[in-house]
Specification:
The complex is a heterodimer. By secondary structure, chain A is mostly helical. Chain A contains eight helices and no strands. Chain A starts with a helix and ends with a helix. In chain B, helix 4 packs antiparallel against helix 5. The longest helix of chain B is centred in the first third of the chain and has 18 residues. Classes of the chains: A mainly alpha, B alpha+beta.
C-alpha cells in the first residue's frame, strides 16, 4: 500500500470511527498503534507508563474523532500529536526521572523514517533544522522526541536554564523564518 | 533573556515551547488556557504541531502488548460492532477483558446442557417467517438450543435459536477472546456454507437474525478473527467452538 493510500484509508477509518464504528476504530488501532507506542515509549522511557499513555490516547481518539478536521494534519500526524501531548503530560506529572540516555552527537531523527510513515513536510523541516547550530538543533530534537525538559537540557549541555531558554527561543524564531520562507 | 521580542514573537516562541513540551508545568497550564481563548495562540500551536510532526515519524514502531487494546476496548464500552446491544457497558466485560488469557484452541465437542424455552414472540404476535424460510417441518416459534463448550468443560456459550424467525440469542457463559482478536459466531445450515451471525462480546448476549435454511443438522460455530471480524464473509481464523442445534423440548 502506498503512503497516500494509507493516509486515505486512515482518514476513512477515522470518519467511520467518528460515526461510532468500532470495527473501523479497531482497524485504525491496528494500523497506527505501533507508531504511536513508539512515540510515547521514546518519551516516557518506561513500558508501564507508555502503555497507560497509549490507552489514554486511543480513548481520546475515539472521543475526538468526530471533531477531527483534515486541516489539522493527516490522521496519523494528528494522532501522533495527541500521543506526544499525553506522554509529555504524564512525564511532567512525575517530576523526577532519568532522562533517556542517547548517543550524544547523533540525531537519527533527521533521517527518513524506515517505515515510510511520513508525518508531514519532512524535507522542509530537515532543511531548516540543519541550518541551526548543532547543540541548538539537538535541543529541539531531544525536547520533541525524548521529552527533555529545560532542566534536563541544561544538565545535558552543561548550561544554565536561562541559556537553554534563549537557545530555544532562537531556534524557534529561525525555524519559523526558514519554514515560512519555504512556503 | 533580554526581552526584545514583540508580542507576536513571544506568542510564537511560547507556542513552540508548548508543542516541544519544554514549558514548565505552570507555564504549560497557562498557555493551554491561552490557546482556548486566543485564536492567534491556537494558530501558532497548529503551525508548530504541523511543522514538527515529521520528527515524530522517526520513532521506531513498537507493537504494544495486547492488553492495551483490551483495556481501550473496555474503556470505550466493548469492541463488538455488530448485532450486540450497544449502549450497555457491562462491568462483566471489563472483568472478562482484563482476565483474558491465552486460549487453548482445542477442538471442541458439543454438549447439551438443557432445553431452553422458545423465545416469546414479540408483542404477542407470531413472528413472521422471513422469505425463503422453511415453513415445515419447523413450526413458528420452534426453539432450538445449542451449547458450545470445550470438551469436558462447562459451556462457553448458550444459544437459543428460533428457526421460524431466524432469531438467534447467544448468551456467553464463559467466553474469552485471545488478545487483539474477536470471536465471531457463524450459523451453518445443513449443507450450507457458514454465514456470519455477529461478533461475540463476552459480557453481553448477542441478538441477531440469520436465514435459517435447513435447521435439522445445522450447527453454530465460533471462530477467532481479527479485530472487527472476518472481512471475507467466511471464517478465517481457527474454529474454537462448534455445536449442532438440538430441538428444545417445548
Amino acid at each position: 500500500m502506498t503512503a497516500a493510500a494509507l493516509a486515505d484509508d486512515l482518514e476513512t477509518l477515522l470518519i467511520a470511527t467518528a460515526g461510532g464504528d468500532r470495527a473501523a476504530f479497531a482497524r485504525f488501532y491496528e494500523i497506527t498503534s505501533a507508531k504511536l507506542f513508539g512515540i510515547v515509549r521514546r518519551i516516557l522511557n518506561d513500558s508501564a507508563q507508555a502503555e497507560e499513555a497509549l490507552q489514554d490516547v486511543y480513548v481520546r481518539i475515539w472521543q475526538m474523532a468526530p471533531s477531527y478536521d483534515a486541516t489539522r494534519g493527516r490522521p496519523l500526524a494528528w494522532a501522533a500529536t495527541l500521543a506526544r501531548y499525553r506522554a509529555i503530560d504524564i512525564l511532567r506529572r512525575n517530576a523526577a526521572r532519568d532522562a533517556p540516555a542517547r548517543d550524544e552527537d547523533k540525531s537519527p531523527e533527521l533521517a527518513a523514517p524506515a517505515d515510510g510513515l511520513d508525518l508531514g513536510d519532512r524535507e522542509a523541516l530537515m532543511h531548516c533544522l540543519s541550518a541551526l547550530p548543532e547543540d541548538q538543533r539537538l535541543c529541539v530534537v531531544l525536547a520533541y522526541c525524548d521529552g527533555y525538559s529545560r532542566e534536563e537540557l541544561g544538565t545535558r549541555f552543561g548550561r544554565p536554564i536561562g541559556t537553554i531558554k534563549s537557545w530555544l527561543s532562537r531556534c524557534l524564531t529561525s525555524l519559523r523564518q526558514c519554514l515560512s520562507a519555504d512556503d | 533573556m533580554t526581552d526584545l521580542t514583540t508580542p507576536t514573537e513571544e506568542r510564537l516562541i511560547a507556542a513552540g515551547e508548548y508543542v516541544l513540551g519544554t514549558l514548565s508545568p505552570p507555564e504549560r497550564a497557562a498557555f493551554a488556557a491561552r490557546i482556548a481563548g486566543e485564536r492567534a495562540a491556537a494558530e501558532a500551536v497548529r503551525f508548530w504541531e504541523r511543522a514538527l510532526a515529521p520528527l515524530a515519524g522517526s520513532a521506531a514502531g513498537i507493537a504494544p502488548p495486547p492488553s492495551v487494546w483490551t483495556a481501550i476496548a473496555a474503556r470505550i464500552g466493548g469492541v463488538a460492532p455488530l448485532a450486540n446491544d450497544r449502549g450497555r457497558i457491562g462491568a462483566g466485560w471489563r472483568v472478562a477483558a482484563y482476565g483474558l488469557g491465552a486460549m487453548a484452541a482445542a477442538l471442541l465437542s458439543f454438549l447439551i446442557v438443557r432445553p431452553a424455552p422458545a423465545p416469546a414472540p414479540v408483542g404477542g404476535q407470531l413472528p413472521v417467517p422471513l422469505p425463503g424460510l422453511p415453513v415445515t417441518p419447523v413450526r413458528a416459534g420452534a426453539g432450538y438450543i445449542a451449547a458450545l463448550s470445550p470438551k469436558g468443560q462447562e459451556a462457553a456459550l448458550l444459544l437459543t435459536f428460533d428457526a421460524a424467525t431466524g432469531q438467534v440469542v447467544a448468551h456467553p457463559v464463559k467466553l474469552s477472546a485471545p488478545a487483539r482478536r474477536v470471536l465471531e459466531l457463524w450459523w451453518i445450515a445443513d449443507g450450507a456454507k457458514p454465514s456470519p451471525v455477529g461478533l461475540l462480546d463476552p459480557a453481553q448476549p448477542l441478538r441477531a437474525r440469520v436465514v435459517a435454511g435447513n435447521v435439522e443438522g445445522g450447527a453454530f460455530a465460533v471462530s477467532v478473527e481479527p479485530l472487527g471480524g472476518s472481512k471475507t464473509g467466511a471464517p478465517t481464523g481457527p474454529v474454537i467452538y462448534s455445536g449442532a442445534v438440538v430441538r428444545a423440548a417445548s
